Amino acid sequence: MNTGQLIVASRIGLLLGAFALASTLTGCATYSESFGSIERNLSAHQYDAALKDIEKQSGSKTDRVLYLLNKGMVLRMKRDFAGSNQMLEAAKAEMEKLYAASVSENTLSFIVNDATVSYAGDDYEQVLVHLYMAFNYLELGQPNDARVEALQVDIKLREIGEKISGDKFTEDALSRYLTGLVYEELGEWSDAMIAYRKAYEAYQKYSVNFGVPIPDMLKHDLLRLAQREGLTDEAAIYSKEFGIALAQEGSLAPEQEGELVFVLNNGLAPIKREKAAGLWVPPPTVAMHATRSQKQTMPVMVNIALPYYESRPNKVLSARVSVSGKQASTQMMENIDAIARASLDSHMPAITARSIARAVAKGVIQESVDRAGNRKNDPAVELIGSLFVRVAAIATERADTRSWLTLPANVQLARLSVPPGSYTVTVDLLGAGERVIASREYPGVVISKKHKTYLTQHWVAN
Predict the structure, then answer these.
(1) Which pLDDT value is given to residue 113?
(2) HSE-CB for 427 with a 13 A CA cutoff
(3) For a 10 Å CB count at each end of the chain, is N or C smaller?
């Protein structure tokens, strides 16, 4: 083979390599696409298999927070509440460490994509990690530790309100309500009243932003505690607003019964996908030595990748809890699906701006490579260089589809007062028309006098 043939063969090899690179890079899966096997195992209640899949993600430095969050939630599904809190506590510490992102990671995200930055958790995820740790402590019978987590929610919410103007998630109504339940358990009635008031204010916002009305149980709690604390005027306001009659004097004596608090974690939170979008932007700035006639003056089309949320299918609408002949239905307390969407909406202007800036910067690099090839007067070099740059630009422009995927789509609560004793609790999951989709029994649930017993169920649809 002569020199000319070797050069041609070499160029063909480079071209084939470029096409191979294109096929490899553009075929890379996003984070959310790697969750399929975990979701299938969760729906089959194969928690150990799901944990094995999650363990495969333990080596990723940028996704360590998600590894800890997901492992913590699956351990919770296994009812290993202590192990769950160990993982969630580690996730909290990692989140705090990453709260101020490093300069080097921000630079890399500008050059490549947002998914190259270590994931520190979305705003609502940073709040919910405290909520689920509080739930874990309550199921472990440790209300004082639960109170500590609930109080940390207040600090985190203030940080969120100061950081992002216009963010709809500036209050977590369920955390406020749970705080009230904890204070009641501890006999701190005044603090419980304050917590219920904050929950009431939060649910007023929830009804507008997330479609969650004020739960009936909160209405009764506000009226009951207002009367108990002698807040006559406030009790009268609640009675009129909620259409609930005031309790007769003498009927507010402490109950001798205990209470079951049932928590349904229904479905899975929405999953992030990516979509490509073409936008017309001002022309990129070419090299300084280019003449005015050489400079592009018309807008150019750039391709960017943006995240969006996709809801998981789930036919369960509520649950019916039965204990010793008494029944109660769950009420919606937290719509995580809606909260996640609203949070992404508040971040989208910044995400889009970064994507456009990256696309324009890559356009500048592409122009520089094209000009370098032209100066060499070698069409093959020009084609190869241009192809590599274009492939890299397309392959690296991926949306950040990371999120805490083992969170439920929504959280529901039911409460039942029963005499002290050991009971079998029956839970019917209901669909449209109150059709029973699934049932489960929990034997040996102990209800203690004047205390709350927490029972959690996670439901993941097939």
Answers:
(1) 58
(2) 27
(3) N
pLDDT band per the 50, 70, 90 thresholds, residue 370? low
Q: Which residue matches tokens 């492939």? A: 391
Burial 41-72 (b: 16+ CB within 10 A, else e): bbeeeebeebbebbeebeeeebbbbbbbbbbb
CA 431-442-407 angle, 5° bins: 55
Contact status, residue 373 vs residue 229, Cβ threshold 8 Å: no
How confident is the model over 124-137, as pLDDT tens digits? Answer: 999 999 999 999 99
Buried b (16+ CB within 10 A) or exposed e, 160-194: beeebeebbbbbbbbbbbbbbbbbbbeeeeebbbb
pLDDT score, position 311? 94
What is the spatial distance between Cα 23 and Cα 391, in angstroms, rounded to a whole number? Answer: 9
Spatial neighbors of 354 by CB under 8 A, at least 6 apart, are 109, 110, 114
* Residue-level pLDDT at 393: 47
Q: What is the pTM of this model?
A: 0.83
Structure tokens belonging to residue 255: 């109950």
pLDDT in tens, 191-225: 999 999 999 999 999 999 999 999 999 999 999 99
Work out whether the CA dihedral 51, 55, 56, 62 comes out positive or negative.
positive
Q: Look at residues 118, 90, 121 and name the one whose alpha carbon lies nearest to residue 103.
A: 118
Between the CA atoms of 158, 161, 162 and 163, what dihedral angle is there, to the nearest 10 degrees?
120
Which is more confident, 32 or 47? 47
Token duo for residue 404? 């805490």
Q: Which residues pair with 414 in a beta bridge?
A: 262
Helix (H, G, I), strand (E, B) or coil at 278: strand
The CA-based angle 233-235-237, given to 5 degrees, is 70
